[in-house]
Amino acid sequence: MGERGLRLSQICIARGEAILLELDLHIAPGEVLTVMGPSGAGKSTLLSLIIGTLRRDFNAAGRVLLDGRDITDLPTAKRRVGILFQDDLLFPHLSVGENLAFGLSADVKGRAIRRARVETALDEIGLTGFADRDPATLSGGQKARVALMRMLLSEPCALLLDEAFSRLDTARRDQIRALVFDYASRRGLPTLMVTHDMADARAAGGKVIQI
Amino acid sequence: MQRIAWLPALTLAAMLGPVLAGLVGTILPALGYFPAAGADRLTLEPLQDLLAWPGLPRATWLSVSTGLLATGLSLAIVALITAGWIGTRAFRALERLLSPLLSVPHAAAAFGIAFLIAPSGWVVRLISPWATGWAQPPDVLIVQDPWGLAMVAGLVVKEVPFLMLMTLAALGQTDANRALTVAQSLGYGRITGWMRTVFPRIYAQIRLPVYVVLVYSMSVVDVAVILGPNTPPTLSVQIVRWMNDPDLALRLQAAAAALLQLALVLATVTLWWLAERAVAWLGHRLIATGARGRADRMQRQLGLCAGAAVAAAVLLGLLSLAVWSVAGFWSYPDLLPNSLTLRTWMRHGPDLWTTALETAVIAVTATGLALLLALGCLEAEYRYGLRMRTGGLFILYLPLLVPQTAFLPGLQTLLLSIGADAGRGPVIATHLVFVLPYVFLSLGDPFRAWDPRYGTIASALSASPDQVLWRVRLPMLLAPVLTACAVGIAVSVGQYLPTLLVGGGRVQTLTTEAVALAAGGDRRAIGVHGLVQTLAALLPFAAAVLLPTLIWRNRRGLRHG
Amino acid sequence: MRRILLAAGLMLAAVTAKAEPVPADWDAVLAEAKGQTVYWNAWGGSTTTNDFIAWIGSQVQSEYDVTLEHVKLSDTADAVSRVLAEKTAGQDDNGAVDLIWINGANFAAMKEADLLFGPFAEDLPNWRYVDVDGKTVRTDFTVPVEGYESPWAMAQVVFIHDTARLPDRLGSMAALADWTRDNPGRFTFPQPPDFLGATFLKQALIDLADDPSVLQNPVEDADYDAVTAPLWAFLEDLTPNLWRQGRAYPQTGPRQLQLIADGEIDLALSFSPGEASTAIANFQLPETARTFVLDKGTLGNASFVAIPYNSGSKAGAMVVANMLLSPEAQARAQDPGVLGYGTVLDMAKLDEGDRAAFAALDLGIATLTPEQLGPAQPEPHPSWMTRISADWTTRFGVAE
What we know:
The complex is a heterotrimer. Chain A is of the alpha/beta class. Chain A has helices at 43-51, 96-103, 111-124, 140-153, 170-186, 198-204; strands spanning 6-15, 18-27, 32-36, 59-66, 69-70, 81-84, 158-162, 191-194, 208-210. Chain A is built from six helices and nine strands; from the N terminus they run βββαβββαααβαβαβ. In chain A, the strands form two sheets. In chain A, strands 6-7-8-3-9 form a five-stranded parallel sheet, sandwiched between helices. Chain A has a four-stranded antiparallel sheet with strand order 2-1-4-5, with helices on one face. The longest helix of chain B is centred in the middle third of the chain and has 42 residues, at 343-384. Chain B has helices at 7-30, 45-52, 56-85, 89-103, 106-117, 122-126, 149-171, 176-185, 190-197, 199-219, 222-227, 235-243, 249-289, 296-325, 343-384, 390-401, 404-417, 424-449, 452-460, 465-476, 478-494, 497-502, 510-520, 523-551, and strands at 33-34, 39-40. In chain B, α18 runs antiparallel to α21. Chain B is an all-alpha fold. Chain C has two domains: 20-152 and 301-363, Periplasmic binding protein-like II (D-Maltodextrin-Binding Protein, domain 2, 3-Layer(aba) Sandwich); 158-298 and 377-397, 3-Layer(aba) Sandwich (D-Maltodextrin-Binding Protein, domain 2). Chain C has helices spanning 2-16, 26-33, 47-64, 76-88, 105-112, 173-182, 195-208, 224-238, 253-261, 275-281, 314-325, 327-334, 352-359, 370-373, 382-397, and strands at 37-43, 67-73, 99-102, 139-140, 143-144, 149-156, 158-162, 267-270, 289-292, 300-306. Chain C is globular, with a radius of gyration of 23 Å. Chains in contact: A-B, B-C.
């Protein structure tokens, strides 16, 4: 077993001749690293490199290591990196419970057991009895919690936040932010947050880098 | 990894293969090479025989004039309605009629119109003899007039809904409302402002569909058989007649005529393209004068009347088919039959069932294949980032831009030469050529508009690319997929010439039966077949609207999606 | 070694080459027909004919286990060109067409090109009922039949008129021209080369010609211009007074009936003496419709069925041809409620019960009795029809 945490080693992303960004950093388990910068600086591009959805017109050098595992060339589905976008992106054709079950690892077998895990997860985020609800009927904060829990159920080894709180109103934002950071530190997930909101960075309390 | 990367190439082959093979099969006999008829040396004789046909000048002129007139009128009506009425209640009413109007097959619409406008038809009966004094229908040439005007009317009522649909799709990508507001605030009338600020942008996007309409109108056969002139007929109809002649030597002449048809279409499209340039130049000059336009009110009324007339013609035509299908004796000038009877339905019922089944098998198979290929291409585009350029769009339209009468006779001749048995298989393959572009076009936009972050999320949750497709992407896009199916089925059900020529006359669908019956002139039988044919195209549309609402009745996020 | 191979090859060839059925051995034909499917290519534009063919299908199915599929053609020529194309492509076995409704030029062409199976017709068991003396069943448009096609219906030209608007019959083509002059726009005929339209031209030619007997020989043997001069003069006179001034024509025979029902014309042509009665029963003609023939008589011919040389179900096809000749089928075809076609059988050859069945038929309100119909005029040689149709198209078919 190699080094724990998320390491971005000698990363260089370019588009054609123009170099977009160069990075070399390490995020320890439970640490939240905030990346800030003006739009177009390549914040989201960095995230797509880590998760494996970089567009073909970009070329990238360097390696991405997660808990010592080189995931640079793995397909997204095998990387075990969770991501939250500014929209909750709950699958509109699935119920709340089915959304959570979509995240739940296939290694958890048996209908009753899977169902029970989903119920427990709902209890945990204060949405007991919501399993059969249509996600479109949930409030913004409820959706954000379901999206977070869906991601956690897939047991990721790292967490990416792409402006994850910018769509929430101020009251909810603090609450959800606290919840996410709480889970991240409890589970020891190295977390990379991209944002343009200083408040997010302050709440994270970790290192902040500007690109 | 790249399991589906070859699908775009296969799609291209399925779409263009038959067209190219058909063109080869047309060119060779046109130059005198047709071993099946004992002709195996290159000669200009077929061409000379064609030129010696006394009907040629008129038939040629008819094809060009009806094609240009039908396309120009359809485009003008669509532009006037959209410019004058978009955003109003009248426009929404017309919009709701769009899908049913689109799904009425050309042949059925043509029958309906024939009965409406004939001198002994419904319109004259409505006002005779009390207003006109006509105890007998007037002896005037309306249907099958030598100028092809009835045929133009039959084409316009079907092409207006098609161009309208394309315009609405283009509008979604144009900031039309604000441009119009700006123009109106500058003192331009509604229509004038629209024509000068929005129309040029819309037209740039619907140019290919307009060409499709032009090519189709120039080479249509079923509508021309029902409403077009016969002394002589249009070039396309004459090609089909020669193709069906027992004298195989006439196939050479038919091939030469098919080649002429192709040249004619190319020349006319070029002419249209030049006219576009001229209109654009004139338009710019006109805009530079700053004239605000005066006839706005009149143009709006004209647009609305034309739109309403188009809708009424198709709907009343369908109604007349329905009445004829249950009519007892029904003579001029009675507005309705003397008696009603179900006898025609009972008589045709069993036969109709077999034909409907054959139609369904062909339509469902062709649409299924088209869906598979189109989905495969779009999925390959998504997975491997293979973007389609303007060239790709042109290729998509290509099968619709080559006149059917130019390559289908060649395809039949080719199949005959290699001894391939005509039958359901080749018919399905030929239907695929026409179904595929429409399925692709109607799937493309919603698929590309799908938020790819859903895919990223699902992948991050450990879903494989296939799982993303089947468990997330397709269920979310159920409504557009079903709509594409309905479009595909409607296109297949409406195909006349591909079924007739490639099927060697032995594959009988509702459309070939209906057109064959048109020759017999038994309006009761035509009524039954026309209605069933329309239903066959309309039911899938109804299903495409109802099924997603039913399946996703508890999923608000997917309604109106 | 080589000789053994050759012998084996010959044996194999003998086994695979299917023996042709022998029409005279009817029991063997029946045995072979069992389970066969017969594709009958017949014009599909008439609902009543389609129904009749379906009935024949149910009969041969239940009695002889033969499946009959009606391939509905818009033109008989389609089937002819199909067989021709198959022969050219070398498909000499199991062709797509097993039985064709045929006569006239198409028969002449197929017989000439050796595309027909036969002779078989006079070996059919029901041939014994056929009226070989009184009806033209052994020549078809002057071409000897020689057993290569089997008759199943008699047709004769009649004019259908709506007596509410045209009360009296017209006795000749000259009278027709006079009447149209007084009543312009009230008559038309199907556009040649449509079969019935071409028939109108032939009927006019015969009625106007000084000596119609020259028409029995090929057109090449006659002074074409002189013989047809009266016809063209007649048409020059007639055409401006036709429906739509001759600028448009109905495309087929049945279209004329619709035009009468619509009140657009008062007079039409038919090749089936019972068609008017049947059409009245089907609401396609007013109850005032009646029929007449010309003073000098009208053209008549027989409809036949023929079997292509490469049919894979010849035995089954013969069973169908024989069924068509059965007294039961013939009586049914003559019933104006069904088809209204003339029978090819000789009443004198039938037994008592069958004769009674024919006698009991109500021929229909608009159908002429055999006496009123009179003897049919013989069809001209097929080459006449081809030539005058082509000439008509040049003169009138591409007007304006």
